[in-house]
Write a structure and sequence with these properties.
The chain is an alpha/beta fold. The chain is built from 18 helices and 15 strands. Strand 2, helix 4 and strand 3 form a beta-alpha-beta unit. It binds nicotinamide-adenine-dinucleotide.
Length: 416
């Protein structure tokens, strides 16, 4: 039995899902094919993904492909309750999620998904897979494989692989070009600022905005923040990536230098305590801290709580911490600000990511028993198919190589 918080929001949820479907043409094409071919007939797909209207479009796609789908969230604060209500009404779908889950409820809901004995798992952050390995060892033999959505999840899976702990194949959907170079970049770039603005309504023009981490997500955030007039500083630990930021025209400096300049800080590293107590001590009065990395580990909130004299909630998911000489604001409780304070990535970009998820599930079924335990990437042709479908959806045509060009590109003899 599904567990959602506001079943009465079902109509708004349905309207939101329909709106998302309009903007997810590539995924709708996959759905059309799955509806006829039924690749998941008789299978159960267990998911831990942000329960958003875009995820609902993926759920319907897998369900129409024959699967029974059981879903929970992958973050206690990211569920869109109206969408959860609408999904709970769908045939062949069970939902365990609401915005504001406690940690205990979050894990209980993961277990509710695993109790349904999924044949395939879909994760965003690897919590479902780790819970399965820790407490459902009997499923390790029956699971066909898993799919992972995000950088942090892949990093955890590769660590499991290194230590011999990963017992079934998992597809690194995040590693598709059509995922991390699109979703992480354009999606996080736009939706992170959306979350920051909805929670603070601050003017970005003229502000000093520090982007911590210049990976796929950080590049997107920095680009969009500059576009809105912010003076962007980048901090990094990787030399080449720092060089890219410098060549892209941003100021690059160590965090200890940035802390006296920044008005706004956005962390997107997938790391722990990249904003720590000694940084907070140096910050100016009124700074805003936000995180768009997967876990709420990037800003050391425990130390902030300990150091602050008081804390109050000033508006929707915006907390003010008071010190003797200043206040510090934290948006979204240090969790993914784009999902806590806004609605996550726009549908168009999630269409690409979720084509990757849908086709990865099909790939697992088609290769059942053939893939070793470990992290796998999808063949480049599948990635290319996704890009083609999206171009078609956008009405964009491209050229094809001529026969002469194909031959030329295969030669080494022809030079100057
Ligand atoms: N908010 C969202 O919707 C969303 C979407 C996609 C990914 N993510 C998450 O965002 C995080 C970043 O993802 P990504 O794809 O950009 O990863 P990435 O690996 O491409 O980039 C992370 C960058 O952070 C840098 N870094 C690490 N530690 C640092 C430190 N102490 N100080 C400064 N820089 C540091 C790394 O050198 C790297 O360049 C991950 O947790 C990922 O799961 C969130």
């Amino acid at each position: 039995m599904s567990q959602v918080r506001y079943p009465e929001q079902v109509n708004q949820g349905r309207l939101n899902i329909e709106l998302a479907e309009r903007h997810m043409s590539a995924l709708m094409k996959v759905r059309e094919r799955f509806t006829t071919e039924k690749p998941f007939q008789g299978l159960t797909i267990g998911m831990a993904l942000h329960v958003t209207k875009e995820t609902a479009v993926l759920v319907r796609t897998l369900r129409d492909g024959g699967a029974k789908v059981v879903i929970t969230g992958c973050n206690p604060l990211s569920t869109q309750d109206d969408v959860a209500a609408a999904l709970a009404e769908e045939d062949g779908v069970e939902v365990f999620a609401y915005k504001g889950e406690t940690n205990e409820e979050y894990y209980a809901f993961l277990r509710s998904v695993l109790d349904e004995k999924p044949d395939i798992t879909i994760d965003d952050g690897c919590d479902l897979v780790t819970e399965l390995h820790a407490n459902y060892p009997h499923l390790l033999k029956t699971v066909i494989g898993g799919c992972e959505e995000t950088t942090t999840g892949i990093q955890r899976l590769r660590a499991m692989e290194r230590y011999g702990a990963l017992k079934f194949p998992v597809i690194a959907v995040n590693d598709n070009k059509t995922k991390h170079l699109m979703d992480n970049y354009y999606g996080t770039g736009q939706s992170t600022l959306d979350g920051l603005l909805r929670s603070t309504n601050i003017l970005l023009a003229g502000k000093v905005l520090v982007v911590v981490g210049y990976g796929s997500c950080g590049k997107g955030v920095a680009m969009r923040a500059r576009g809105m007039g912010a003076n962007v500083i980048v901090t990094e630990v990787d030399s080449f990536t720092a060089l890219q930021a410098k060549m892209d025209g941003f100021r690059v400096m160590p965090m200890m230098d940035a802390v006296t300049e920044g008005d706004i800080y956005i962390t997107v590293t997938g790391n722990i305590h990249v904003i720590d107590g000694h940084h907070m001590e140096q910050m100016k009065d009124g700074v805003i801290l936000a995180n768009s990395g997967h876990f709420d580990s990037e800003i050391n909130l425990k130390v902030l709580e300990e150091k602050a004299n008081s804390k109050r909630r000033v508006r929707h998911y915006l907390d003010e911490y008071t010190f003797a000489d200043k206040v510090i604001f934290v948006a979204g409780e240090g969790r993914l600000v784009n999902l806590v304070s806004a609605e996550g990535h726009p549908s168009e970009v999630m269409s690409l990511s979720f084509c990757g998820q849908a086709l990865a599930c099909e790939y697992l079924v088609n290769n059942k028993g053939k893939l070793s335990a470990g992290v796998h990437v999808l063949p480049a042709e599948i990635d290319d198919t996704i890009a083609k479908m999206q171009l078609e959806a956008m009405g964009v045509g491209i050229d094809v190589l001529t026969k002469e060009q194909v031959v030329y590109l295969d030669l080494w003899q022809q030079g100057t």
